[in-house]
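Protein in question kept in full:
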Amino acid sequence: MSDVINAAVEALNAKLDGGGFDAGTAKFTIEGEGSVVIDADGARAADEDTDVTLTADRETFEGILSGDTNSTAAFMGGKLTVDGDMGLAMQLGSVLS
């Protein structure tokens, strides 16, 4: 597993504040690095089917996690793609901000 994925899991679990994401399942695919799944148990490195998949390059994903990049702006600018439940993606965006 890459250092980028390990750092993403750690950062996402910190944002979830020890909890999980109860609204459904989501996957972040970081191009060239791997995937992170978020569900009721928290974040973990995995690549499984989820309700929504968000795909971005490393720079965009790190910007979203740090708060330097707005996820909606990244989506509108074509830097973040969403496949699946758009409503769930929007809920996830509020968790990450």
